[in-house]
Write a structure and sequence with these properties.
The chain crosses the membrane at residues 210-228, 235-251, 271-289, 301-319, 325-344, 356-376. This protein is an alpha+beta fold. Helix content is 45%, strand content 21%. It is built from 15 helices and 21 strands.
Length: 682
Amino acid sequence: MNSADVRKMGKYFRSRILPLFFIFFSFQCNPEGQIKLIAEKGIVSLSEIDFQENKLFSLNGEWEFYWNESYFGYLSKKDTISPEWISVPGSWTDEDRFPKKGKALYRLRIFSKEITGVCGLKVYEFPGSYRLYLNGKLAHENGKYSETPEQSSRSLTRPYLAFPCEKEMNEIVFEVVNEKDEEPGPRRPLLFGSETSVRSVQEYQQMSDTISFGILVFMGLYHIGLFFQRRMDRGSLLFGIFCLLMSFRILVTEEHYLHRFYPDFPSALEWKLDVLSFLVLPPFLTLIFSSFFQKDFNRKILYPVILVSFFLSSLYLITNIEIIFVIYLILALFCGIYLCYVLYLGVRENRVGAKVFLLGWIVFLGTVVFDLLSYANLIRSIYISHLGFLFFIFSQANFLSVKFNFALATAEELTTRLDQKVRERTDNLNKALDLIRSDLNMAKSIQETSLRRKKFRHPYLHFVERSVPHSEIGGDIFDVREIHPGYVRVFLADATGHGVRAAFITMMIISESETILNSKEPPSLILQKINERYTSKYGELNLFFTSFILDFDFINGQIHYSSAGHPTQYLIREGELVPLKTKGKPIGVLSEENYHSVSSELYPKDRIYIFTDGLYEEIDGNGEAFGQGRLEEFLLQNREFSLGQTLEDLFYRIGEFRSGRPSEDDVTFLGFEVEDFLKNHF
């Protein structure tokens, strides 16, 4: 994504998103255009205002105040006692006028032109439990009221009340008792007006809270979902959890919906949740910034901030000592300043989306400061940090979209480069493969030329063979030759491994065995000489091969055989399977290995099968090998068939066993059947 695209997206954000938010924000803060009325000596006059125009009145100023009085006690002696005057909003402990623990009475009279219809009253935060009397009638009891402070309990609800208007004067009386709150008394002005106007404020507050709650929950779950799609992005998880925490904050602040839904929910616990929803802001925001701006954030301060925040938060919630909260506010202030500095670095280094993120952060930080001032009673207003956080979410959404588009454009560019690199590397690889194939074909031709023999024919032997390499070139070699009249030698070797490595070993075998195989010495001595020559030249290479030599001695009517680590071979005579096996290590393992020859009688109709281990080591789809047991069973079952038919059926059976899987090794199979012969005929 180029700079023009970023500017276009930023212009859209500024022209569409920001105006919508500020319209929503302005209506939230002052939905009906409240008129501020200042009471003097406990009296508010509306004589010059038309009450029927659905206007809202904010009741501020001097209220009548009677310390240590109950409502009925006041009624009994109202003509004999004089009131104190106290400011609303405010606390009766201001300037140490009265002790915090005790009971008191607030009274305000509202004079007006003739009023008809129904009036409305909205009461905001009022620490302590109280009873509210409107025009001499008990209209509401907040919490559990008792003239004995120890037996009272407060409620955090902020009631909206409708009551019949008196024609010329309406009286509002609060009967309050306080035990623990440090600043008892109304913290914000009351709203008074027609029932319709006050109810509209209540409904608007609920609507805005519902919208805010829904947006925060949706964005929280959305970002958590993003994290589970891409777990490396921890920032999405943190931001999602933070959104859910802010949505929870709506339930325990301002209208205290949690208490509405669960009236018996402990007020003390709800207060702790209210405070906790603010105390988690600094550490969580620090974690979020450390994730989104990793290059600009100094991670050395991350864990100290988290630990100190956790310690101070826990200590304040347990002890409720105000100085601890003040210290925490100072820590939060320094965190906010540092996070602004991190954003400054991000903007200076032109990080993607940093400017939009900075704008959202400044607005959110401003609303948090506003809430702090409201909580500390320095200003009298509703909490608006969740609105600032909504704006922060909008900026965050823009930040993520810019970041995502930038990442997508980068990914597309990298993909294009990667495709080009892949094509280049593929071309180079294909050229290398063509060269390798050419070399392999040449090696295959050389190997075939070296191993090529005239087709073996002998009057006393019927012979079939098949050799299937694992790849273009293999590691199995065999040779069948008549070394002198009436004496046929069969030589089979199986190099370890397969492919090029095994093929090189076969060339070494041919080089070292060609002249020795023509010797009339017994098979064991032939293997011993091959082993000595091979190990003397190639012993340091650790390249081995197994071998089996079998001689048909038609002169004496015998067979002689010897094995160098080769598997058991088979002789079938008169329906019985006879194993052909001797001891001896593979060629190349030990330079002075002694091999042993075994001799046996030879009869017409004898069948001898010589093969490499690749024949029975083939694997099926379940990883099970064909095995020597299946091979022995097959050879016995096919003893009446011709050698050629036996060969074809065996390879078909093995191919069927593999179920289309590639061969695991080179496979060589030789079959001999002895015809009628005369001893000593040669």
